[in-house]
Specification:
This protein has 168 residues and is mainly α. 77% of the residues lie in helices and 2% in strands. It contains 6 helices and 2 strands, in the order H-E-E-H-H-H-H-H. It has a two-stranded antiparallel ribbon with strand order 1-2. Helix 3 packs across helix 6 and helix 5 packs antiparallel against helix 6.
Length: 168
């Protein structure tokens, strides 16, 4: 099969939708490296839930140390500049690749912000294992909503682009 059939920068490419589905699947199924299914199974057993809580608190502490630099204004302004640059360049020059990268990576920045807030909550507050399980459940719900809104936005933009460029 010739390589020219793989349009890697097109929204109509199956590779783009596969990449997008895998991003949101892995972001919803794992919270700090622990699969959500493990939390669901351990919700009935207090010993397993306590082990998962210890592990999750350790990973959350590491996560807050790793992303502490995101709180500095310089990095926030740099990210805002890059997002604005990609948005303006993508929409002014109609670069489909830049538009796609904007639609894919802006929700991921919001997801990192959600996870950073969750990690700070785990580190600062001493939650019981059942409260920790509830917080992870709520975080998974927020991630699902963000992923759904991201997919709907990309799909609507894709349909709008097809209608705009269609010639009759």
């Amino acid at each position: 099969m010739p390589f020219e059939y793989f349009f890697l920068t097109s929204v109509s490419s199956i590779w783009f939708w596969l990449f997008l589905a895998m991003i949101w699947y892995f972001s919803m199924s794992n919270v700090f490296g622990v699969p959500y299914r493990a939390w669901f199974i351990a919700s009935n057993n207090e010993d397993e839930l306590a082990d998962l809580c210890r592990f999750t608190r350790f990973i959350a502490a590491h996560f807050t140390k790793k992303y502490r630099i995101l709180n500095h204004w310089c990095y926030i302004l740099l990210i805002a500049f890059l997002i604005t640059f990609i948005a303006l360049t993508g929409f002014l020059y109609e670069s489909e690749f830049l538009q796609l990268s904007l639609f894919v990576f802006v929700p991921i920045i919001a997801l990192i912000h959600f996870r950073l807030n969750l990690a700070k909550k785990f580190v600062k507050q001493q939650l019981t294992p059942s409260e920790l399980h509830v917080q992870i459940f709520l975080h998974r719900r927020k991630t699902k909503i963000l992923g759904f809104l991201s997919l709907i936005t990309i799909f609507c933009w894709f349909i709008f682009t097809i209608i705009k460029h269609q010639t009759i």
